[in-house]
Amino acid sequence: MRIVCLLLVLGICGLAYSQQTKAINIAVLELDGNGIAAGDLGGLSNRLRMELVNTGKFSVIERSKMEEILKEQGFQQTGCTNTECAVQIGQLIGVRKIVVGSIDKVAELYSVNIRMVDVATGKIETNVAEDCEACGLTDVMKVTIHNAARLFSGLPADLTVAKKAPVASIGAGETPPATSTVAPWLAAGIPDSYWQNYKASGMSSFSDWASHKKVVCYCWGFPLDAIGWVFTIAPFVEAHSGQKSWGASNTAQLLVGLTSHVFSVALIAKGIKYSRLSEKGLALQ
User: Fold this and answer.
1) DSSP-assigned states of every residue in the chain
2) For residues 38 and 40, what is the distance between their CA atoms, to the nearest angstrom?
3) Under-70 pLDDT residues of the chain
4) Which pLDDT belongs to residue 283?
């Protein structure tokens, strides 16, 4: 009976922990554009694929796999920039969504126009149109493409292009002012590994992510602690009451109880850590 209770509690907690939205199959066509080198456009397309994966919402088909399927079908992707053509490719490679668009450069202005299309209906679900003035190609890759992926996944944009400060004149013998390069989450006391895990989760804020992790840890930790006490005390009670002499089953129950205690303490301690990190994350909102 105690084993059944243990499995039941762990099963419920495991179900709560693993309940996630299934990743959507999606493909990204090579971005088109004017005023930008073909190699740079390829790099931007690859960056968009990576950012979509990082949201945790999509399963992105690899470029080589997509090209292989299209080659077998005798379909040329080159010049495919309209919605109808994108839908046709999406049907051939068997994805639910497909991303198509262009990035143009005129003087110092980058004009980004990327859209996500539902292959089944042919409708544009999300369109990202943004002009980035007086910014570099690096800003487009790190900020604009990153934000576009978040918008496609239903998350808000969370990065902005840093404004370039005017260059101050420095006299002879003067030391230029020091600039801070510490990331804001590190300054708030959040380890980089936790921040990167949050970014990969696709959640809207670090505080929400840490709170979710805290609940999961407590969901496992406290039931395991209760079960640990049951399995630790029960064999002594049985042996003391004379129901049966101490045997292998009593030792096995005791080991299960002690193991449960070890895991429960570790999980509860981690939950407390996530709780403190959640409070630190509020300062970044």
Assistant:
1) -HHHHHHHHHHHHHHHHH--PPPEEEEEPPPB-SSS-HHHHHHHHHHHHHHHHHTTSEEEPPHHHHHHHHHHHT---TT--SHHHHHHHHHHHT-SEEEEEEEEEETTEEEEEEEEEETTT--EEEEEEEEEET--HHHIIIIIHHHHHHHHTTPPP---PPPPPPPPP--TTPPPPP-----HHHHTT--HHHHHHHHHHT-S-HHHHHHHHHHHHHHHHHHHHHHHHHHHHHHHHHHHHTSS---HHHHHHHHHHHHHHHHHHHHHHHHHHHHHHHHHHHTT-
2) 5
3) 1-21, 78-79, 162-183, 185, 242-244, 283-285
4) 67
Q: 24: closest CA among 63, 65, 57, 66?
A: 57
Q: What is the pLDDT of residue 74?
A: 83
Is residue 150 within 8 Å of 158, Cβ to Cβ?
A: yes
The one-letter code for the residue type at 80 is: C
Which candidate, 17, 12, 44, places its Cα nearest to that of 30? Answer: 44
pLDDT of residue 121: 95
Q: Parse the chain into domains and list their residue ranges.
A: 23-160, 186-285
* Cα–Cα distance, 116 to 123 (Å, whole number): 9
Residue range 23-160 forms a domain whose CATH class is alpha beta
